[in-house]
Amino acid sequence: MAKSDIAFSSEFSPSQVDLVDVLNVLESTAGNSGALLRAVQAKWFPKAVVAKNVRLSLLAYGIIADGSGPNDKGSKLHERFHLTDAGKRLMALRDNPDALYAEMGRHVLLKVRGGMAVLNVVEDLDASGIAVKMDAVREELVRRGLHIPKNNMAATRVRQWLEKCGVVTPEPHRVVEARKAELLGSSTQEIEALDGLTSEQKAYARALARMNVTEIRSNEVAKFATETFGVRFPDTGLPGAVLEPLKERGLLTYQKTTGGRGAKPSIVRPTEKLKIDVFEPLLDAVEASAGIEYRSFVRAPWADVLRDLKSENKNVKGKALEALAAKLSFVAGLEYRAWRLRGTTTGGAEVDLLVESHKPVFLRWNIQCKNTSSVRLDDVAKEVGLAVQMDANVVVVVSTGRFSADAIEHAKSVMKRTNLTVVLMDERDIKAIAENPATIFEILHRTAKLAATLKRIEDES
Question: Which part of the chain is the Restriction endonuclease type IV Mrr domain (predicted)?
Fold first, then answer.
């Protein structure tokens, strides 16, 4: 186990060192680790045992790496260092403090271990009405399963960097949403790929990337973009207004369909450029928040997930069920918070995933996936009870089989009597979402309409 699930950063925080000075020292010592140590001693920390922590922190933050270059295979790599791509980007911005700290903030959130986790906790605690202090942040990080040794200050130093770049306020800490959106709304790659496009064209490209399909009807992507990003597209002329400009950028190809009467939606296919420049940066944010394993679940092809759910191997089946939960939450635009129950510990029988949404208001979702032929009343009742304990607003129960009649009636009863929304998805829904990810919004709308109808009936009675 790592000493901490938050990146090591002793003697490396904006309250201890100036980032521009650190970058200047890296440049002047020209990849010599010994010279770096001596320069740190001369400028900041005279004791070698303390000064060496700066180099270790720069390694942990991914600003430098051991060796003279990424392909250095020689011995005693620790005697040399080189700038990573992140380090080079920071180095190039030394003369522009605003841009420098924006890039540092983006790097901490997307690439530094624990960076996104700290931001998420600050945001969640503030949303719950708590005056956020670091003691509460550390306690919540531990509650969510992160290993943080007693008296470890790594989370505080992450928060200090986020405060320096303007995404977190001083105590009581809050997340500055506009700055967060500025830093995370687009990665450098995505900005370059989508620069100059209209808001509708950008939303369409992002929607197609998030859907992660090989091909799909153009109107389904438009529906997904509308649901996810709130944009509207013309009733006619989608190819000229949106598809053709994206094709010219090399982000997609499309093929007009023929046959029958009237205009038919085109078939749209994402290119490798879209996957590399838009989808991969999106996954970087997922990995920073939820870890590399969760990212691998999101990337897993639907066909593989559906196949592995039927595996005789319990470990394979468990991983597939976790992938199902992760893919459903990703498609719906929900943010990972924690696994409550892992598929690998239940032999692939069930998983529980806690996720959240912030648009248009904060909602906590508990997603329960069951790999069984039938889900009964007791199963749904158990999830409803747990949702109350977890302060969840939405319960999603997913079955690779079907729901019994009494389970469906119980879900309706809960929605009629309480403020909980209970979403039931069976094997038919899973297959439909696998074929067309935009279907998930139809299912959610279906449940929302049902809940509204049930509550009206209750009011009228």
Answer: 315-430
Q: How many residues does the chain have?
A: 461
Rounded Cα distance, 337 and 334, in Å: 9
Closest to 370 (Cα-Cα) out of 427, 300, 412: 427
Let me know whether 265 and 329 are in one domain: no
HSE-CB at 328 with a 13 A cutoff on CA atoms is 34
Same domain for 401 and 342, yes or no, is yes
Beta strands in 23-154 (DSSP E): 64-66, 81-83
CATH of the domain at 437: 3.40.91
Q: How far apart are CA 132 and CA 171, in angstroms?
A: 7
What domain count does the chain have?
A: 3
pLDDT, tens digit, 9 for 90 and up, residues 236-253: 888 999 999 999 989 999
8 A C-beta contact, residue 176 and residue 122? no
The pTM of the whole model exceeds 0.90: no
Residue 108 in domain: yes
Q: Which residues contact 210 (CB under 8 A, 6 or more apart)?
A: 224, 228, 279, 282, 330, 331, 333, 437
257 and 388 assigned to the same domain? no
Task: Give 293-296's long-range contacts (Cβ < 8 A, gap of 24+).
Answer: 294/326, 294/336
The answer to the question of residue 3 being in a domain is: no
Beta bridge partners of 116: none
Does some domain include residue 12? no
**If you ran DSSP here, which 8-state letter would residue 215 be given?**
-
Beta bridge partner(s), residue 395: 366, 422
Q: Residues 279-326: pLDDT tens digits?
A: 777 666 666 666 667 778 888 889 999 999 999 888 888 889 989 998
Pair 269, 254: CB distance under 8 Å:
yes
Predicted local confidence at residue 72, as pLDDT: 72
Q: Is the peptide bond before 46 cis (omega within 30 degrees of 0)?
A: no
Q: Are residues 32 and 136 in the same domain?
A: yes
Q: What pLDDT is recorded for position 297? A: 85
Does residue 80 fall inside a structural domain?
yes
The reply to whether 176 and 203 lie within a common domain is: no
Structural domain including 35 reads 19-181
In the numeric block, the tokens 């770049």 are attached to 165
Task: Please give the pLDDT value at position 380.
Answer: 94
Interstrand relation of 421-425 and 350-357 (parallel, antiparallel or unpaired): unpaired
